[in-house]
Design brief:
The protein contains 13 helices and 12 strands. It is elongated and about 60 Å long. β10 and β11 form a beta hairpin. By secondary structure, the protein is of the alpha/beta class. The strands form 2 sheets. Strands 1, 2, 3, 4, 6, 7, 8, 9 and 12 form a 9-stranded mixed beta sheet that branches. Strands 5-10-11 form a 3-stranded mixed beta sheet. About 35% of the residues lie in helices and about 20% in strands. The protein folds into 2 domains: about 150 residues, D-Maltodextrin-Binding Protein, domain 2 (3-Layer(aba) Sandwich), CATH 3.40.190; about 150 residues, Periplasmic binding protein-like II (D-Maltodextrin-Binding Protein, domain 2), CATH 3.40.190. Keywords: Phosphate transport, Signal, Transport.
């Protein structure tokens, strides 16, 4: 359920995942930061990615109802590009994106606020290739065929390149209608980064980023909701969306061939497997590349941005408490899993909470 409390306990408790990023204690039973023992009062505004919006809305609802009734959080799903822009313009308390702030963004934040920005990942998620035709559920695609579809070199579902990957599936001759994000989008960044690392011709012609110069003949949609609508409203529709949106809309999804040549269904377990391959540097600037094993290959993370100064202390306490709860409380982690997002592993969670606590530390 969007903008309300989701049904909990659909999945068993999701264990904290061990990562190759350092050690740490068990955070699975925490209920928030040190401020959680007291009642907080604050009003926060965040803006950015639509990729995690289903999760963020349910986390915010649950936190307000069950943890801190005095904290009001308004998260605006405006797309990653707008989220970064509003964060740098200081019109929100925190920003959100599927692409981390680069060195230029960090320098701009420093200049605008006269203190450093803080950024940290909060969840992993899959970008799925979804269809309007339910008979195509489980269709196998690889990076080359996806690139061919979005460059309009492959225009029907029975194209020989798709047929070769699906010898046992009866493919329709329907025209493919590719749908893309028309706003500045972190989901587009994850999708185009994957294609750029896997397909040289895509990297040369289209590259990667939150916005692309798309081929002619594609349909655009605002945010993940708009792409989902574009898929369902067009016979032959195909598009890239966060897994949660495909789940909610009941869309058929492709199995994507990973680095080991294995077609992988986009499941929570496959996203977890992809996230376990990530080596996260100290500055938290990373991408998920070359996923093999049981991992789903089109995967990304969502980052939250705050500042080390400039908040009223009540707001800073609420930011730290909410995100600490979202990262460490087991019911919050279960909720992420229910919606198809993979929580951070144990060691990475410890590192992220330590980074989060730098919020307003320079005041």
């Amino acid at each position: 359920m969007r903008n309300g409390r989701s049904k909990l306990a659909v999945l068993a408790a999701i264990p904290l995942l061990a990562t190759a990023c350092g050690g740490g204690g068990d955070t699975g039973g925490d209920t928030g930061g040190d401020a959680a023992a007291e009642q907080l009062s604050a009003s926060l505004t965040g803006a950015g990615a639509s990729f995690p919006d289903p999760l963020f809305q349910d986390l915010i609802y649950t936190y307000n109802q069950d943890v801190q009734p005095g904290v009001q959080i308004n998260y605006q799903s405006v797309g990653s590009g707008a989220g970064v822009e509003q964060f740098l313009e200081q019109t929100v308390d925190f920003g959100s994106s599927e692409e981390p702030l680069d060195d230029e963004d960090l320098a701009a934040a420093q200049e605008a606020r006269s203190c450093e920005a803080v950024q940290f990942p909060v969840v992993f998620g899959a970008v799925v290739i979804a269809f309007s035709n339910e008979a195509l559920d489980g269709l196998v695609l690889d990076a080359e065929t996806i690139a061919g579809i979005y460059s309009r070199e492959i225009t029907t579902f029975d194209d020989p390149a798709i047929a070769e990957l699906n010898p046992d599936m009866e493919l329709p001759s329907d025209e493919i209608i590719p749908v893309h994000r028309s706003d500045s989008s972190g989901t587009t960044y994850v999708f185009s980064h994957y294609l750029s690392t896997e397909v040289e011709s895509w990297a040369d012609e289209y590259g990667e980023g939150k916005e692309l110069d798309w081929a002619d003949g594609l349909v655009g949609g605002q945010q993940n909701d708009g792409v989902t609508q574009g898929i369902t409203q067009n016979p032959g529709g195909i598009g890239y969306v966060n897994q949660s949106y495909a789940q909610e809309a009941g869309l058929a999804v492709a199995h994507i061939v990973n680095e080991d040549g294995t077609p992988i269904e986009p499941t929570l377990e496959a996203t977890m497997a992809a996230s376990e391959e990530v080596e996260v540097p100290d500055n938290f600037q990373f991408a998920i590349d070359n996923v093999g094993g049981d991992g789903y290959p089109i995967a990304g993370s969502n980052w939250i941005f705050t500042y080390t100064c400039g908040y009223e202390q009540a707001n800073a306490d609420a930011i730290i408490d909410f995100w600490t709860w979202a990262l460490t409380d087991q019911s919050a982690r279960d909720l992420a899993g229910e919606l198809g997002y993979a929580p951070l592993g144990e060691a990475l969670t410890d590192r992220v909470v330590a980074e989060l606590e730098k919020t307003n530390s320079a005041n």
